[in-house]
């Protein structure tokens, strides 16, 4: 690993929602960084705070109840949480852009594809209208949309889900951003289309030379795309390492459980491994101890009492688990005593 | 689009036929007839009455009466008003421009007020300004128009003296001059405002709610992610979506505004169709009543057609071939 300056540095981020007057953190003390041109995958089950985390970076949280409470998000050294809406608008779409999960609803139904494409370039360049339109058409070509010169005059409902996601990608790369955040970009698509879209994203990431933060719960996608993986559980980072280490030497019981639940071609198996139970909801988050303890096959009594810290287990490998906590006495690390 | 419109117009023919039967039956069901409103039965020779009845065709079987009435209408002859001693078409012709002016002004006031109030409240939901707008809305919805009309006359005409309380035009003005039209608009303003009150309230609320809802939509988030500023997001992305339900209501309003005009015109003694309708009903001037009812039906049908066509223009998903 080279020791480049990180492009994006999330530092102690706390993002929460006000529910019935109380603040509940969906993202709790999350820190990680993305280097230029690096692909970082954020994995975890639904409800782990992955999307909230990505929306925090873009400052796109629902305004009425969502809020970044503590922490910093440094992009090229600037703390994004300190910027005004206007300053953020200069960054959104130009330096950082985003692709969303739902291509069916992410485009405005009453505006033409062309208008919605042009908008990015109108916001961030001084080009003339006809030049912008030419660029939009060629961007659509670039993401593999045929008859792009006609598609610009059509409306979102005339396109398929896969095509809409291509349009979203075209918009996202229009200004050649330094960072692309893709929040489960293929989840809502057909399996065959998923592969095409991933391939496209990978190709474009390579061409444009941008860094990417890919949010997914599909470990197959992680293996395919990631340089580095951040595993999240219940709003916290539980493991952070490079992709090879994650697949070959996972440490955290949650990561191991996730990997076990991937169906394998080379083993005969009647029943798929699953992780019992569900992610605790925002309002029922355990206040003390490890958040995974109720579902953890290796839980100990102490896990209910001590908040595990995210510690460097090895070079480039951080884990949030008492089992790997150097300050926790080794003789007490008897597995499977707890639940 | 053209074929669709033509088809819709063709469908109107059977509807109008049925409406005409209903209108005709209603006129028959009204106590008295064209004759009884004109003569004093206690004072007239029964033979003369019988003679007149025969002459007017009132003794014919009902279907024959309907047939001759309908046949005349197809030739644009709506009969004669006994009360005013003139052709119904001519009579309506003198009143219709006033009602059209009233409706158009009312719609313009409604749209301007609702657009700005709704847009403001929708962009700043749950603020003091929003609550103020909603308070005004509830007031406008809750007060019956005849009460509001009396209040308006009392406050703006009698107390403040800003507007005239009755009539549709000042006296002694030559038709067609600027002063004449100025006076007309001046006379129309207050009734138009009261007439548009109910629709203003519902439009404002519609627009506000739809904007609040649209602001949560994914495409708004996409627009923000592109670095689009809030003004453009509201004016292009949200408003363009939220205006759809309002535009479609426009067609339906044509009918409800003429309906409301009946009350408002009567209170303001505004010489329009509504006032004529009320007067004709009390005078048993059934030819006029039937003609106005038919006219309202046609207006409603055309309004609905307009609404559907507008819907297609403004919402690409519903665009018709």
From TrEMBL, chain A:
<dbReference type="InterPro" id="IPR003439">
    <property type="entry name" value="ABC_transporter-like_ATP-bd"/>
</dbReference>
<dbReference type="InterPro" id="IPR013563">
    <property type="entry name" value="Oligopep_ABC_C"/>
</dbReference>
<dbReference type="InterPro" id="IPR050388">
    <property type="entry name" value="ABC_Ni/Peptide_Import"/>
</dbReference>
<feature type="domain" description="ABC transporter">
    <location>
        <begin position="8"/>
        <end position="259"/>
    </location>
</feature>
<dbReference type="InterPro" id="IPR003593">
    <property type="entry name" value="AAA+_ATPase"/>
</dbReference>
<keyword id="KW-0813">Transport</keyword>
<dbReference type="GO" id="GO:0005886">
    <property type="term" value="C:plasma membrane"/>
</dbReference>
<dbReference type="Pfam" id="PF08352">
    <property type="entry name" value="oligo_HPY"/>
</dbReference>
<protein>
    <submittedName>
        <fullName>Peptide ABC transporter ATP-binding protein</fullName>
    </submittedName>
</protein>
<dbReference type="GO" id="GO:0005524">
    <property type="term" value="F:ATP binding"/>
</dbReference>
<keyword id="KW-0067">ATP-binding</keyword>
<keyword id="KW-0547">Nucleotide-binding</keyword>
<comment type="similarity">
    <text>Belongs to the ABC transporter superfamily.</text>
</comment>
<dbReference type="Pfam" id="PF00005">
    <property type="entry name" value="ABC_tran"/>
</dbReference>
<dbReference type="InterPro" id="IPR017871">
    <property type="entry name" value="ABC_transporter-like_CS"/>
</dbReference>
<dbReference type="GO" id="GO:0016887">
    <property type="term" value="F:ATP hydrolysis activity"/>
</dbReference>
<dbReference type="GO" id="GO:0015833">
    <property type="term" value="P:peptide transport"/>
</dbReference>
<keyword id="KW-1003">Cell membrane</keyword>
<keyword id="KW-0472">Membrane</keyword>
<dbReference type="InterPro" id="IPR027417">
    <property type="entry name" value="P-loop_NTPase"/>
</dbReference>
From TrEMBL, chain B:
<comment type="similarity">
    <text>Belongs to the binding-protein-dependent transport system permease family.</text>
</comment>
<feature type="transmembrane region" description="Helical">
    <location>
        <begin position="185"/>
        <end position="207"/>
    </location>
</feature>
<feature type="transmembrane region" description="Helical">
    <location>
        <begin position="138"/>
        <end position="165"/>
    </location>
</feature>
<dbReference type="InterPro" id="IPR000515">
    <property type="entry name" value="MetI-like"/>
</dbReference>
<dbReference type="GO" id="GO:0055085">
    <property type="term" value="P:transmembrane transport"/>
</dbReference>
<feature type="domain" description="ABC transmembrane type-1">
    <location>
        <begin position="96"/>
        <end position="307"/>
    </location>
</feature>
<dbReference type="InterPro" id="IPR035906">
    <property type="entry name" value="MetI-like_sf"/>
</dbReference>
<dbReference type="Pfam" id="PF19300">
    <property type="entry name" value="BPD_transp_1_N"/>
</dbReference>
<dbReference type="InterPro" id="IPR045621">
    <property type="entry name" value="BPD_transp_1_N"/>
</dbReference>
<dbReference type="Pfam" id="PF00528">
    <property type="entry name" value="BPD_transp_1"/>
</dbReference>
<keyword id="KW-1133">Transmembrane helix</keyword>
<dbReference type="GO" id="GO:0005886">
    <property type="term" value="C:plasma membrane"/>
</dbReference>
<protein>
    <submittedName>
        <fullName>Peptide ABC transporter permease</fullName>
    </submittedName>
</protein>
<feature type="transmembrane region" description="Helical">
    <location>
        <begin position="288"/>
        <end position="314"/>
    </location>
</feature>
<keyword id="KW-0812">Transmembrane</keyword>
<feature type="transmembrane region" description="Helical">
    <location>
        <begin position="243"/>
        <end position="268"/>
    </location>
</feature>
<keyword id="KW-0813">Transport</keyword>
<keyword id="KW-0472">Membrane</keyword>
<feature type="transmembrane region" description="Helical">
    <location>
        <begin position="9"/>
        <end position="30"/>
    </location>
</feature>
<feature type="transmembrane region" description="Helical">
    <location>
        <begin position="100"/>
        <end position="117"/>
    </location>
</feature>
<keyword id="KW-1003">Cell membrane</keyword>
